[in-house]
Amino acid sequence: MQRTCLVTGAGRGIGREIAVRLAASGHRLALTARNADELAGTAAECGRGALVVPLDITAPGAVDELFARTEAQLGPVEVLVANAGAASSAPLAKTTDEEWQRLLDVNLTAPFRCVRRAVPAMVSAGWGRIVAIGSIASRVGGPYIAAYAASKHGLLGLVRSAAAELATTGVTVNAVCPAYVDTPMTDGTVANIATRTGRTPDEARRILVAQQPIGRLITVAEVTAAVLFCVENGAITGQALNVDGGAVQS
Which member of 3, 16, 134, 202 has the greatest number of CB atoms within 10 A? Predict the structure, then answer.
């Protein structure tokens, strides 16, 4: 059945792949990210005239604007993929209030606002799918990522609580928790490690690869497959699906 799907952070990487796969399955798509040119590239790959809404999802009123435009042109959101996110690393003592708040705004508050806005229509229809893109940092902490891990732990708490509240309504809520994925975001992590440690980018990338037992970075297609599994299976809710090459066994 054709559904109205909203993907945040859809301009590149995981978000773009999810959008393309949903479009290939025949769904209606609303796409958002800050970069209009990247969004246009995603829409072109989708090939279905997807609704493109460039905005900063953390801005006041942005989520309401996004949903209002989607509802007006495509109908109520039936599948929400909360993918937009940001990462950074710094020693705990050097993590500023501004960086702490930035990561909370992008990784936790914006998804919360999207979930809050999506739920009434989903409950009314008796069907809905919400998938948040978490991280293995939703499951375990690590050095130099206090702000990131806190925001992603909070996201998993949101997912679990929403799933428990909505369990009888036909609405499922899950998280997909990747390790390091071969995306531009990971390229930024590599650059940060290289700058901070004096290693070459290749050496820094090998550090990330070594953290995954399978000996390589995760692919966007592997993360997307887990997202689609959550969309297609109505008996899966309140779960955090690790896509991490065996790094965190659970």
Answer: 134
